[in-house]
Structures are given as structure tokens and as C-alpha cells.
Design goal:
Elements lengths: L1 E3 L5 H13 L5 E3 L20 E3 L5 E3 L1 H11 L10 H25 L10 H21 L17 H15 L14 H10 L3 H19 L3
Parallel strand pairs: 1-2
Antiparallel strand pairs: 1-3, 3-4
Bound molecules: glutathione.
The site of glutathione has 11 residues, from helix 1 and helix 2.
């Protein structure tokens, strides 16, 4: 299998974190930057990364779908949670990160350019990010131990979505001249401080830092 990916993409980072957490070693990474040139739709009709080639150009798009596919193909260790209620909570956390944080941040990114910024668009999207962060603060589990994760004491798909999403909150949102939305959300802030020390999370965060450096240097 081949994963079409890029260091900086938070959606691709989520899939890589699942791969690392599961210890999967037989997926090759393709870092071809053609998705940024609008040519990736020749590989995947959605034209977006991540995309998983499961053989001879048979493509699975969408990070959430790829993660569920990997969960079924490589069931151990499970990243879904234990029992139906816990699994629902894990999926809720993952969807908050994906839909209410990442999607709105992505739509706001063109507003980073102050010269072309439309404040009303930036503000509308940031209201949604703030609402999403408030919901995350309510749903994320309390963090009282060193080894706590977003939904208990083992890593789940919630962590794999949240880690890249919170990196985006910290590293891109302030460029819109609004505060980092993590600030003031104490449970999320405590989680974020702790999870960055986890080796699997740190690996993905290093890749995202490397991707940002390359983007800023124009060497991608
Ligand atoms: N909902 C998709 C979002 C994927 C996405 O937007 N990827 C970005 C990179 S982070 C992309 O490929 N953008 C290229 C484009 O929009 O043409 C997922 O979860 O995989």
C-alpha cells in the first residue's frame, strides 16, 4: 500500500499517527507535492491528500475513511476505544477536531494575508473554531495523570486527529491576528501540554514542524 501524504497536512498527519500507533511498517509514503499544483485529481478524484493506494491505483480518499480502513485491516492495537459508549466518545472527539476545528481553520487560511483579508470572513470562521474548542473542552477527558490521552489512558483515534488539529490552532490561527484558541480552555491546554511529550505524537509534530519550515523556505 502507498499513502500519498505531506509533512504539513494535518489530515495526512492524522493517518501517519494511526500508522505509527499501530506499528504498521508495510505502507510506503509518497511525498509527491503534485496535490498542491492541482494535479492530484489524476490520482484521486477528490484531489486531496491523504489518499491510500491499496493496490494498482485503487484509491481510498479521506483521512477518517482511511483510518477506519486501517483499523479493520490492522485491528491490533485498536484505536477505537473499549465498549460502545467509549467508542462513541472517541469518535465525537475526533469529529470535533476534524469538522469544527480543522475545516474552519482551513477555510480561514487565505485570510492570513492582511492585504486581502476580509475581516467578516475571518471572524465568522473563528466564531466556529471557538465554539468547537468549547465543545472539545467539555468532551475531552480530565487529565490528571502523566499518561492521560484524550479519552482515557490509551491512545485512540481521537488523539490522532487532535494532535495535528491543535498544532494548527497553535501555529496558524495566531497568524490571523486572533489568539490561539487553546488558551483559556484549561483541560485542552493541559492535554496539549502532555500529549506533546508522547513519542508517537512528537514524531508527527516534528514532521509538521519540518513541513512548515519547508513551506516557509519555499523548498517543499
Ligand atoms: N476531508 C479531507 C480533507 C483533506 C484536505 O483538505 N487535504 C488538503 C491538504 S491538508 C489538500 O489536499 N488540499 C489540496 C486542495 O484542496 O486542492 C480529509 O479528511 O482527508
Amino acid at each position: 500500500m502507498i499513502l500519498h501524504t505531506a509533512d504539513l497536512s494535518p489530515y495526512a498527519a492524522k493517518v501517519r499517527m494511526v500508522i505509527y500507533a499501530k506499528g504498521i511498517t508495510d505502507i510506503e509514503f509518497d511525498l509527491d507535492p503534485s496535490f498542491r499544483k492541482g494535479k492530484f485529481s489524476e490520482v484521486s478524484p477528490l484531489g486531496r491528500i491523504p489518499a491510500l493506494d491499496v493496490g494498482e491505483g485503487d484509491i481510498i480518499p479521506e483521512s477518517e475513511v482511511i483510518c477506519e480502513y486501517l483499523e479493520e485491516v490492522y485491528p491490533e492495537p485498536s484505536l477505537l476505544g473499549v465498549g460502545v459508549r467509549h467508542r462513541a466518545e472517541v469518535r465525537t472527539l475526533s469529529r470535533i477536531a476534524d469538522i469544527y476545528l480543522l475545516n474552519n481553520i482551513f477555510l480561514a487560511l487565505p485570510q492570513i494575508n492582511r492585504k486581502h483579508r476580509i475581516d467578516a470572513i475571518r471572524d465568522m470562521l473563528m466564531v466556529q473554531v471557538t465554539r468547537g474548542m468549547g465543545a472539545l473542552e467539555a468532551h475531552i477527558w480530565p487529565n490528571t495523570k502523566e499518561d492521560d490521552f484524550a479519552a482515557g489512558d490509551t491512545m485512540t483515534i481521537a488523539d490522532c486527529t487532535l494532535v495535528p488539529a491543535l498544532w494548527m490552532c497553535q501555529n496558524t490561527v495566531p497568524n490571523l491576528d486572533v489568539p490561539n484558541p487553546i488558551e483559556g480552555n484549561d483541560k485542552v491546554a493541559a492535554y496539549w501540554a502532555k500529549i506533546q511529550k508522547n513519542a508517537i505524537a512528537a514524531r508527527v509534530l516534528d514532521e509538521m514542524d519540518r513541513g512548515l519550515k519547508a513551506r516557509l523556505a519555499g523548498t517543499e
